[in-house]
Write a structure and sequence with these properties.
By secondary structure, this protein is mainly alpha-helical. Helix content is 54%, strand content 0%. The protein has a domain of 35 residues. The protein contains two helices and no strands.
């Protein structure tokens, strides 16, 4: 469900880019976001290194 302002933005976007099937567009956009997030969160064999590990920010003085 969308509020009035969100629906206006969606309508303007669909009109600008000539999208005729809004429900299909919304399903695809939602599923793309979900699949991207799941792919980003997928565990890997090697963990990403801590960006602060070697720059001195985590070192105790």
């Amino acid at each position: 469900m969308l509020n009035h302002r969100e629906m206006n933005v969606l309508n303007a976007y669909c009109e600008k880019y000539k999208i005729q099937n809004k429900s299909k567009f919304m399903r695809e956009a939602i599923m793309t976001a979900i699949l991207k997030r799941l792919d980003d969160d997928y565990p890997t064999l090697f963990a990403e290194p801590d960006p602060n590990l070697f720059n001195g920010e985590n070192q105790a003085d």
